[in-house]
Amino acid sequence: MTQLSRRGLLTGWRRSTQAIRPPWSGSEADFIERCSRCGSCSAACEGAIILAGQGGYPRIDFRNGECTFCYACARACPQALFTPRDSAPWSLRVAVNDVCLTRQQVDCRSCEDSCEPQALRFIPTRDGVAALQVDVSLCTGCGACVAGCPVSALSLRSSDGQ
Asked: Is residue 111 a known part of a binding site?
């Protein structure tokens, strides 16, 4: 059972939902300890997807767009907080839930259209509605598919269990 604070109950915030931090920001514990919450990363974000989250810590909101992996957030940070650009930005990968329109036998391909690395593809079926096939090995975790989904069936989750 999720425990809610009084404030969390009134604002709808649930403690169990871990925010997605900016790319190259490392572990959650290290990020929280070292981030000064200055807002420099948010101001520098080309896609305007870095917002102030719980406690003022930056979080990613893919409903606003995608991450272009420009590294502007890391360059703008006054702390030595971000890992080098040649390392993996994060371990996020796409996850599809049951409200996906194709799982409801409705033809929709908005996620495929927005997925540049083609991690999301549709395979023809006998019943006429193509089935969504996800290749997580191709997914960069950019979030382009999230904003374009008309029913919010897509999310990004850590592939390393964190």
From this structure: no
